[in-house]
Amino acid sequence: MQTIIIKIDSRELKNADLDIRYVLPDVLAEYTGNKVTDNGYDYIDSSGCELGIWLSTDDAIKNYPFVIEYIKNHLVCENDLSLSAEIFISEKESVDLEECQKVYPI
After folding, report:
1. What pTM does this model have?
2. Considering 4, 10, 15, 80, which has the largest number of Cβ atoms within 10 A of its Cβ?
3. Residue 85 sits in a domain of what CATH number?
Protein backbone atom coordinates (compact mmCIF):
# COMPACT_ATOMS: atom_id res chain seq x y z
CA MET A 1 0.00 0.00 0.00
CA GLN A 2 0.97 3.63 -0.51
CA THR A 3 0.26 6.80 1.45
CA ILE A 4 -1.70 10.01 1.01
CA ILE A 5 -1.55 12.51 3.88
CA ILE A 6 -3.90 15.45 4.26
CA LYS A 7 -2.43 18.13 6.53
CA ILE A 8 -4.96 20.52 8.07
CA ASP A 9 -4.21 23.54 10.24
CA SER A 10 -7.15 23.97 12.61
CA ARG A 11 -6.40 27.69 12.93
CA GLU A 12 -7.43 28.09 9.28
CA LEU A 13 -10.76 26.30 9.57
CA LYS A 14 -14.14 27.99 9.80
CA ASN A 15 -15.35 25.14 12.02
CA ALA A 16 -12.45 23.48 13.83
CA ASP A 17 -14.51 20.37 14.62
CA LEU A 18 -12.17 17.47 15.48
CA ASP A 19 -14.69 15.04 14.01
CA ILE A 20 -13.10 15.96 10.69
CA ARG A 21 -10.43 13.34 11.47
CA TYR A 22 -13.14 10.65 11.19
CA VAL A 23 -15.53 12.22 8.69
CA LEU A 24 -13.00 13.05 5.97
CA PRO A 25 -11.54 9.54 5.58
CA ASP A 26 -15.03 8.03 5.53
CA VAL A 27 -16.36 10.35 2.83
CA LEU A 28 -13.21 9.92 0.75
CA ALA A 29 -13.49 6.13 0.96
CA GLU A 30 -17.09 6.35 -0.23
CA TYR A 31 -16.27 8.92 -2.92
CA THR A 32 -13.40 6.86 -4.34
CA GLY A 33 -15.07 3.46 -4.08
CA ASN A 34 -12.55 2.49 -1.37
CA LYS A 35 -9.53 3.31 -3.55
CA VAL A 36 -8.52 5.60 -0.68
CA THR A 37 -9.10 4.38 2.89
CA ASP A 38 -8.48 5.53 6.44
CA ASN A 39 -5.06 4.83 7.94
CA GLY A 40 -5.22 6.95 11.09
CA TYR A 41 -4.37 10.47 12.15
CA ASP A 42 -1.83 12.28 14.27
CA TYR A 43 -0.98 15.78 15.37
CA ILE A 44 1.95 17.03 13.32
CA ASP A 45 3.08 19.91 15.53
CA SER A 46 3.54 20.20 19.27
CA SER A 47 0.81 22.86 19.58
CA GLY A 48 -1.84 20.40 18.39
CA CYS A 49 -3.03 22.80 15.68
CA GLU A 50 -1.79 20.82 12.68
CA LEU A 51 -3.59 17.55 12.09
CA GLY A 52 -2.39 14.90 9.66
CA ILE A 53 -4.88 12.42 8.24
CA TRP A 54 -3.20 9.34 6.78
CA LEU A 55 -4.89 7.48 3.96
CA SER A 56 -3.93 4.17 2.35
CA THR A 57 -4.18 3.52 -1.36
CA ASP A 58 -2.80 1.03 -3.84
CA ASP A 59 -1.60 3.87 -6.12
CA ALA A 60 -1.03 7.32 -4.58
CA ILE A 61 -0.15 9.00 -7.88
CA LYS A 62 -3.28 7.72 -9.57
CA ASN A 63 -5.66 8.35 -6.65
CA TYR A 64 -4.59 11.65 -5.03
CA PRO A 65 -6.41 13.67 -7.74
CA PHE A 66 -9.69 12.22 -6.45
CA VAL A 67 -8.87 13.62 -3.00
CA ILE A 68 -8.17 17.05 -4.47
CA GLU A 69 -11.35 16.91 -6.54
CA TYR A 70 -13.40 16.05 -3.45
CA ILE A 71 -12.01 18.83 -1.24
CA LYS A 72 -12.45 21.38 -4.03
CA ASN A 73 -16.12 20.51 -4.49
CA HIS A 74 -17.41 19.58 -1.03
CA LEU A 75 -17.50 21.08 2.43
CA VAL A 76 -16.29 18.81 5.24
CA CYS A 77 -17.68 19.64 8.67
CA GLU A 78 -18.63 23.06 7.23
CA ASN A 79 -15.06 23.68 6.06
CA ASP A 80 -13.75 24.47 2.59
CA LEU A 81 -10.56 22.43 2.80
CA SER A 82 -9.41 23.62 -0.63
CA LEU A 83 -8.38 26.84 1.10
CA SER A 84 -6.37 25.29 3.92
CA ALA A 85 -5.44 21.64 3.36
CA GLU A 86 -2.13 20.42 2.03
CA ILE A 87 -1.83 17.00 0.39
CA PHE A 88 1.28 14.82 0.35
CA ILE A 89 1.92 11.42 -1.22
CA SER A 90 4.42 8.59 -0.97
CA GLU A 91 4.84 5.23 -2.65
CA LYS A 92 5.71 3.86 0.79
CA GLU A 93 3.25 2.61 3.38
CA SER A 94 2.47 4.63 6.54
CA VAL A 95 5.36 7.08 6.28
CA ASP A 96 6.01 10.34 8.07
CA LEU A 97 5.15 13.61 6.40
CA GLU A 98 8.83 14.42 5.84
CA GLU A 99 9.13 11.38 3.55
CA CYS A 100 6.30 12.52 1.28
CA GLN A 101 6.04 14.73 -1.78
CA LYS A 102 3.70 17.74 -1.59
CA VAL A 103 1.16 17.64 -4.43
CA TYR A 104 -1.39 20.24 -3.29
CA PRO A 105 -1.25 23.17 -3.37
CA ILE A 106 1.72 23.41 -5.65
Report:
1. 0.95
2. 4
3. 3.30.70
